[in-house]
Amino acid sequence: MARRKVETPCLLATWSEADQLLGDIVRKQWEAERIKRQTEKRIAALKESMTQAVESYQAAIAEGEKQLALFAKMHEADFGKARSKVLTHGVIGWRQSSEVKLLRTVPDTVALLREIGREDCIRQAEPKVDKLAVRQLTEDEMVSAQIRLVVKDTFYWEPEKTQLPDTARMDAAEVGQ
Fold this sequence. Notes:
Elements lengths: L14 H60 L9 E4 L2 E4 L12 H10 L15 H4 L4 H6 L22 H10 L1
Antiparallel strand pairs: 1-2
């Protein structure tokens, strides 16, 4: 069975209907923005409340961690050959970790890694084409680089800015609700 492209029929018959639809879109846009602002304010308030609520717990946890480390250091002999000790509420001990420290500057280290053939140890962003800069190329340069500038008309719509409601008044009305 052959596939058919589904076409959306145009429901507008007059410029007046198009203007009315644009007005409806603008009102919906305003309402969506109002809801976003209101929600962002609530989220910010909740984050602030959460931060204040957990602050004392986080401080107590950090202090407790320091105390456990000091206690374990003072009682290292109790661990014997083991690196950890199981307690009723968990385990304390030491875990081996490692950290890479560069003995030279980053450019020097990169040069040394390249010298020994270890490019895989060098992280580098993939090169990308700067499309804004490419627009400034001459036509001959574009042909040489196998780049084509395609010009097309793209539909747009733009609400009338002078008719936007006063957001300060809208926000004050939201607070009064």
